[in-house]
């Protein structure tokens, strides 16, 4: 039985008035001898409830005198009796405050916390008055205000975008004036709650304001509370939203997450892309849905509109197609025309999601870290990267990485201040990336362009008919912006319910529209993406009753796929011609003492080297030629200039760079250094094109040069 239970136990005697000496005297004189004996413990406890030691001492004098009067105590033992009672004194509530106690949601009116918390010893919670620390001074409880409102953690937060090691927690505060619980608007790291110097950061949200007055006391309370509740490990966990896209609950931010209402935990910061998206989404959809349908009706037969709309719709589907498509979709709208490329891409994203301008970045103003942060925030939504011709050399490899979805290796600072490498296997972005500019983005990505051809639809087609003026285009874009976002939520709810197996079956059926005789591997890689785009258009037409021209989209996609892979095929042809012409000169020539065959390509006798060397082939290593040799080889072909030809050779990865440079080759004369100013083709890049005899001879030589491993101590073979 607890102290409070004993104190509340009913008795037949009249209650003792221990607030005054006179009251106690009047009560005790009514007790019989037997009652004084049997009720000694109870009378003592009630005396202990006095307000001070001095008052207890006076009441014990009265009690001792009554016991002397009844013959229960000798006068000489009065001081000893009184001393013993004072030494035994303990306030009835002290044991309660020395032990932790649970506070549950049922004790706190309308508390949203579904889990009981163990309130640490020495603290009291009152919804009316706040949090108090109870300390005993000279044996009596003294209440010190910790904070004038109840503040409690009620939920742990899992934020996949947070790289720190601290747990994140949500806080609630009881507002006595409004008689309701208020939520602190963002998660707080546990480490900030337990340190006086950090807990003051709560003030900025305006819900829990500590100032200088309460920082220390609240930090001490939170430290005790966390320790007595096993680091809050039993609190329920919710997923935080820190970027766009699908959540673990199968919702999509910022559209279908509206279902969570105030229970949505958002960790984006003011001034960031994700915060701006959240703010805009509150006002979506905009305008009239009928006006949005009218815009689609006007543009439904425009093939560029159809392809861009398909890419826009496919973006949130891409992350759900793991195993079918493990990279992103890229659509590059380019050409010399200056009207409408960006406008078309902004238009379709505004029409579907209501976010056209917010997803656009410009290469000329871009920085590497900024690009990845932007696309990371827009995850699963389409992204526009504007003005391809403005991309810097420093960023030339970024488009390829973006289409892979992975940033690549880089150094990152860990939560404890150390530097380490990032996890380059994690997708930073999944979805559809739109490029646009006067030239294709592939032409600006020389080192990655061979791979980019299999990931990118290069659409070199006017976005609007020739009779559209700039005013007409701007009018269309404006109409999409003011009537945007009517399709996003229904489209996302629709694809969330789609069965991936059925999607895959339909993609196989759609692939027949893109089969072409003699198509290469790059074309095949694009086919999967093309079928996804057409599938999305089919689903959109069925869901919303529209009639976007799918045949026009198929035709434009096939044209762009052929154009994209043709460059690689043309590069193969150029390289084959170089090998053919050089080997016509080499014939059966044996290499010199350094393993090289040297030529003066344009001389009747190519082995007359008095005027210099313009070709060097070193078996198993490389072929070096001058630019004049390349020009000679290209005579009679459609390639009038060597620079575009070199760029094509880079496209197919025969060359690492289209720039000319000095390349050394070994000289028979040890005292002379030999160089050819031109281009170098590595053996591994060209060996599949070499004459069969040359390739086989080189491979056999390489095998022969591999010396067998001899282990000592073993008997020799016979």
Q: What fraction, in percent, of the residue positions are helical? A: 25-40%
Instruction: Tell me the overall shape.
Output: elongated
Number of strands: 25
Low-confidence stretches: 9-16, 699-718
Please outline the major beta sheet: 6 strands, mixed
Terminus-to-terminus distance: 97 Å
Helix count equals 26
Average residue-wise pLDDT? 82
Strand content: 15-25%
C-alpha Rg, in Å? 41 Å
Structural class of the helix and strand makeup?
alpha/beta
Describe, in plain words, how this protein is organized in 3D.
With 718 residues, the protein is of the alpha/beta class. Helices cover 39% and strands 16% of the residues. α5 packs across α6 (78-87). This is DUF927 domain-containing protein. Residues 128-387 form the DUF927 domain.
């Amino acid at each position: 039985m607890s102290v409070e239970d004993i104190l509340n136990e009913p008795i037949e005697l009249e209650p003792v008035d221990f607030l005054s000496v006179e009251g106690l005297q009047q009560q005790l004189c009514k007790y019989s001898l037997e009652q004084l004996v049997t009720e000694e413990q109870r009378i003592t406890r009630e005396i202990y409830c006095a307000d001070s030691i001095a008052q207890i001492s006076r009441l014990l004098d009265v009690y001792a005198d009554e016991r002397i009067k009844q013959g229960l105590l000798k006068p000489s033992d009065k001081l000893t009796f009184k001393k013993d009672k004072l030494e035994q004194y303990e306030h009835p509530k002290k044991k309660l405050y020395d032990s932790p106690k649970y506070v549950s949601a049922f004790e706190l009116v309308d508390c949203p916390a579904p889990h009981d918390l163990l309130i640490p010893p020495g603290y009291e919670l009152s919804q009316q008055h706040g949090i108090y620390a109870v300390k005993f001074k000279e044996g009596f409880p003294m209440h010190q205000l910790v904070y004038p409102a109840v503040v409690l953690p009620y939920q742990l937060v899992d934020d996949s975008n947070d790289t720190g090691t601290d747990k994140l927690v949500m806080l609630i505060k009881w507002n006595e004036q409004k008689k309701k619980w208020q939520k602190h608007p963002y998660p707080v790291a546990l480490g900030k709650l337990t340190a006086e110097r950090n807990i003051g950061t709560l003030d900025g949200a305006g819900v829990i304001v500590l100032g200088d007055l309460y920082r220390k006391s609240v930090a001490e309370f939170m430290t005790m509370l966390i320790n007595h509740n096993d680091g809050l490990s039993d609190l329920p966990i919710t997923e935080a939203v820190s970027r766009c896209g699908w959540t673990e609950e199968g919702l999509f931010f910022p559209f279908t997450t509206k279902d969570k209402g105030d229970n949505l935990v958002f960790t984006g910061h003011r001034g960031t892309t994700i915060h701006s998206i959240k703010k805009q989404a509150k006002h979506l959809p905009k305008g009239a849905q009928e006006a949005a349908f009218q815009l689609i009706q006007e543009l439904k037969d425009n093939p560029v509109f159809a392809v861009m709309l398909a890419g826009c719709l496919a973006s949130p589907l891409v992350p759900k197609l793991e195993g079918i498509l493990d990279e992103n979709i890229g659509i590059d709208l380019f050409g010399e025309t200056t009207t409408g490329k960006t406008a078309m891409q902004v238009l379709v994203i505004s029409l579907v999601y209501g976010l056209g301008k917010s997803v656009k970045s410009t290469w000329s103003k871009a920085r590497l870290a900024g690009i990845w942060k932007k696309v990371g925030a827009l995850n699963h939504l389409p992204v526009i990267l504007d003005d391809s011709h403005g991309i810097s050399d420093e960023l030339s490899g970024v488009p390829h990485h973006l289409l892979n979805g992975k940033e690549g290796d880089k150094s990152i600072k860990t939560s404890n201040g150390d530097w380490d490498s990032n996890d380059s296997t994690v997708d930073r972005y999944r979805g559809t990336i739109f490029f646009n500019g006067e030239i294709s983005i592939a032409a600006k990505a020389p080192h990655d362009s061979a791979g980019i051809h299999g990931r990118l639809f290069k659409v070199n087609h006017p976005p609007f008919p020739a009779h559209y003026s700039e005013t007409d285009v701007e009018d269309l874009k404006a109409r999409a912006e003011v009537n945007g976002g009517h399709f996003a939520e229904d489209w996302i709810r629709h694809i969330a319910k789609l069965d991936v197996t059925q999607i895959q079956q339909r993609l196989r059926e759609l692939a027949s529209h893109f089969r072409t005789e003699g198509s290469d591997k790059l074309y095949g890689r694009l086919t999967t993406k093309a079928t996804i785009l057409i599938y999305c258009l089919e689903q959109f037409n069925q869901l919303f009753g529209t009639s976007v021209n799918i045949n026009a989209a198929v035709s434009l996609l096939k044209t762009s796929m052929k154009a994209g892979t043709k460059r690689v095929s043309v590069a193969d042809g150029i390289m084959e011609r170089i090998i053919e012409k050089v080997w016509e000169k080499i014939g059966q020539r044996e290499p010199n003492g350094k393993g090289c065959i040297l030529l003066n390509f344009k001389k009747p006798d190519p082995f007359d080297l008095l005027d210099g060397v313009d070709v060097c082939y070193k078996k198993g290593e490389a072929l070096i030629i001058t630019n004049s040799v390349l020009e000679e080889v290209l005579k009679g072909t459609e390639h009038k200039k060597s620079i575009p030809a070199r760029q094509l050779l880079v496209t197919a990865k025969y060359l690492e760079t289209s720039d000319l440079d000095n390349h050394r080759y070994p000289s028979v004369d040890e005292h002379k250094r030999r160089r050819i100013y031109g281009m170098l083709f590595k053996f591994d890049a060209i060996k599949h094109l070499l004459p069969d005899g040359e390739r086989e001879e080189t491979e056999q030589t390489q095998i022969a040069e591999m010396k067998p491993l001899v282990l000592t101590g073993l008997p020799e073979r016979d």
